[in-house]
Amino acid sequence: MTGPHGVGIGWRPEIAGFVAELPGLRFVEVVAETVPIAGPPPAGLVELRERGVTVVPHGVRLSLGGAEPVEPARVAHLATVAELLAAPLVSEHIAFVRAGGLEAGHLLPLPRTREAVDVVCANVARTQAELPVPIALEPIAALFDWPDDELDEAAFLGEILERTGALLLLDIANVHANARNRGTDPLALLDRLPLDRVAYLHVAGGAEHGGFYHDTHTDPVNREVLELLGELCARHRPPAALLERDGHYPPAAELRTELDAVADACGFPVVT
């Protein structure tokens, strides 16, 4: 099975009816941990699969950057969800979410050290050994950098991708947020990333608060993110881009407008 193509949207129960009515939809992404493995997947996802829509499980709890090895039960759940949904790939974050048995409840940034690279690569290898499909790794938005960083972001990501052979899930909103909060040039990062390894893109909205730009997933996608998306696609157009929305869902007409804007920036057919 081929990977995702065209424009997609994050599948959430709150907007399942809206998603089901999108005539040109090619793929959706579902949070893997919300899909039960003891029974059938949610009906909306089954209907989408029957229509030929690709469904990609997106993990948020593996903690690939945690110092402790990934938990086998969590990896097994992700692998089973991929099989249940006939997914062509899965995705997860380069982050940690737990330590010493404590759950942070958030995706936390790693120090960009060579030791952290080793930890991520070891956990990705353990995960890959149990998965029936490839994995794409997503760098997160971070409000701070660790003081003992040894590598910049491009070098850190490049080494992880090279050593693991994993694909890249590039969140263009995260690229914008990190560059804005760090005072760096997002285009300089794009020019150093292995864009040919991008499996698909994330696009989301954010907001300024307390002197920082927050990747909220509850605000509209702003002009700067769409322009950066266009710059990325001018360099190397990935096969697919997905709109993330996680709350404060706007009226259907506004969501359609956002999807069309993503399609236009990438040069993809509209889904609405």
Describe the secondary structure blueprint for this structure.
Elements: E1 6-10, H1 16-20, E2 27-31, H2 43-50, E3 54-58, H3 72-84, E4 90-94, E5 96-99, E6 102-108, H4 114-128, E7 135-139, H5 153-164, E8 167-171, H6 172-182, H7 186-190, E9 198-203, E10 207-209, E11 212-214, H8 223-235, E12 240-243, H9 252-266
Parallel strand pairs: 1-2, 1-12, 2-3, 4-7, 7-8, 8-9, 9-12
Antiparallel strand pairs: 5-6, 10-11
Mind explaining what this structure looks like?
This protein is an alpha/beta fold. The protein has one domain (6-266): TIM Barrel, CATH 3.20.20.150. Helices cover 36% and strands 21% of the residues. It is built from nine helices and twelve strands. The protein has helices at residues 16-20, 43-50, 72-84, 114-128, 153-164, 172-182, 186-190, 223-235, 252-266, and strands spanning 6-10, 27-31, 54-58, 90-94, 96-99, 102-108, 135-139, 167-171, 198-203, 207-209, 212-214, 240-243. The strands form three sheets. An eight-stranded parallel β-sheet has the order 3-2-1-12-9-8-7-4. It has a two-stranded antiparallel ribbon with strand order 5-6. Strand 1 (6-10), helix 1 (16-20) and strand 2 (27-31) form a beta-alpha-beta unit. The longest helix is centred in the middle third of the chain and has 15 residues, at 114-128. The radius of gyration is 18 Å and the shape is globular. The model has no long low-confidence stretch (mean pLDDT 95). InterPro entries: MbnB/TglH/ChrH, Xyl_isomerase-like_sf. Pfam families: MbnB_TglH_ChrH.
